[in-house]
Design goal:
By secondary structure, the chain is mainly α.
Length: 100
Amino acid sequence: MSAPHAPTSVERHTMPPTSLLVAALVMLHRPCTRNRITASLLLARAAQDSTLSAAEREACQNLVDELEHDLLSAPMDPQSSASHLAHRPALRAFRRIAAF
């Protein structure tokens, strides 16, 4: 029996869009900054999948835009402000990556 291998970048990007969408829903079930960023990343990947219709891809991208806007404009809660600020660079980096 061979040891399981880590998925390659090609294997990681072949996940069906339904799996990406379900994973995004799971992340949004318990909304926190990290889960919203993760859901945004998953939805952005789904929005690039050619097996979805143009309307479905647009809906995914609209949700990404809403999540990013909400994360960047959310008022700072004193208890979670450090966590929220820690995720802002990740969100900015995500935007640069998603632009490609």
